[in-house]
Each structure stands twice: as C-alpha cells, then as structure tokens.
Amino acid sequence: MTVKFIKLTLLTAGLIMASPCPAAAHEGWGVVVDAQGRVYVTDIPANTIWRISPDGRVEPVGRHIHSHALSLGLDGAVFGTHSNLTQPIRGVWRLDKSGRFSDIIPATRGFPLGLQSFLRAPDGSIYSASVYQYPEPEGGRDLYLLRWSPSGAIDTVAGGRVGHADGAGRAARFQAIDGMAWLPDGTIVMADGSRLRRVSVGGLVESLGSPLTELSWDQDLLGVAVGPEGAIYAADFAGRVVHRVANGRVEKLYRGGVYWAPTGVAVTADGVYVLEHPRAPLGILGDIGIGPYLRVRRFGPDGRGMTLATRWGRHSQRLAIATVLIVGAVFSIRRSRGRKLQRRQERLP
Hints:
This protein is an alpha+beta fold. Helix content is 15%, strand content 41%. Helix 1 (2-17) packs antiparallel against helix 3 (316-347). 37% of the residues are buried.
C-alpha cells in the first residue's frame, strides 16, 4: 500500500510541475519612471510589461512582449521592442500615457537592428546593436552600433569586429552592448561588457575608466542610467551591485545580496529604482516559473530602501503542493516503518 502511495505521489508531483515555459535569452534591464511616479519594468520570463503605481498597485500593461530594454520619451510615452523568439522578426512600439500601444517600427523580418539593446533619441531615432551573429562566422563576429532614423534610413554609428578599442566609426570596437542612456551633453553612455563607454552621435567612442566588474556566468554590466545630477548608475549583474560613477570616482551604491542581483536602474529626484533578478545561475528559476524571480526596489535620497514589487513564478504554488505531497509521502514511509518495527518488537518473547 505504501509503495503504491509513493508512486502515486511522485507521479502527481511530476504532473504538477510538468508544463511548457518560454525560454529567455538573459534577464531584462528595462525600468523607467514617468513624471507621475509610475514605474514600468520589463519581465522577460513572462514576456510582460508591468506598471507599478505610486499607491503600490501592480498591473500588466502589455502581454506577449519580449523587450529587454525600455526608453522614456519627453512626452511621458514608454518605448520598447519586441523580438520574436523563433523567427528573425523585430519591431519597436510606443505606449502612450493613456495605455494605448502603437508601432514605431512594425514587426519586420530581417530587421538589421538587434533591438535587445535599445535607446530612443529625442528626435525619434533608434539606437541599437546589430543582430547577434549565430553561428559565429569563420572570421569572427562583428558588432556595430546602428541608428534607425524616422525616415527609415539605417546607418552605422561605430563598430567592427568584436573586441575593445576606442576610436571613431569603424575603428572602434565593442564587446557586448547592453544598457544605454543619454548623458547631459547629448552623448550616449552604454554598458559594453564590463566597461562603460561614451559614444557621440557622430561615432566617436571612448572608454570611461577601467572595467567595473569581471565576467561571471557569462554576465557583466546590464542596465545604465543617468541621474539628474549627471552621475552614471550601472547595474552590475555579475558583481551584484549598483555602481555610481561621478567625477572619475566609483562608489558601490547598493549590493543585492546572496539571492538577488541588479539588472536595471532608473534615477529620478525621488531616488534610485533598481530592477533585480536572481543572481546567475539562479535566473533559470524565473524561466521555469519557480519562486521569486523579479523584484523592484526604490532607494530614497536618505539611502533607505523599500521593495515596491516582487513577482513569483507561475509554478511556485504548484511546487509548494508538490513539496507537501513529497513530504507527506516521506512521513508516511517513516510512520509505516515505525509501526512494522513496533509489531516485530511486540512479537519477541
């Protein structure tokens, strides 16, 4: 009877946990805050855009959207991308303050911009890294920063063979372009591998200091932001810290801890907003829908932090049920064995 019960329990647990889940590349870093204090974040495992209101309400404003980055327009509109997970189809969307979506770049097959890294300019131009080359070409991969203009024209700002080199245009080299933001002087600051780089719209590329982190589990810097005071904030996913860079000085503003690591950052006069995911390699938990996989925190000017929202995987409740069933099975086995042992002892003279 006990053996049958255990088999049934394990089968039930397996059925509870077995269900398809979407695959993800790596964690998103998109987090922006509008003038009303509403926080928008990307959720790659769930392919969802969430909005957190000042009163703490969390609601989805977009489903079936695969956007690693977000960009905030001067009019308060939120811009993001959508990449098809199985086909080379990519586009750019706009979400206005009333909650209506519209296409800036309709989903296009073979679009040259990779649209994982993504930044919108005030004039409507879109900046993004070129499409990732897979499999790797025989001579090595190329990586460019491309620009799409509202007229439809696409040009190369800078880049060439993957590597690291400062310079102008095709003489510059990039390692891995992720988060980007606008500096007060109209240049772009980007997370390029373990370094921060500055890129002018004319294509002049320069490194901002030494590397801020070391590659860990194939991860390094992700999101970047620029504060009202002009300081640069970088989410170091590998090192599990948020760096603040100002006047040539680097300070660790926030450390994620054992489980959480920052992927995205936004800065307003009210404080620093940090998007977090489980540190690598625990990010797989979000992909399979188990446990807490996304958290948003805000740090006020006084340095005090508070959690605005935490998202749990859709299979977390199922896992809890499966765990209870398994624990119950183990308890049943031990109790059954105890009873058998007691009976044997009672039979002894």
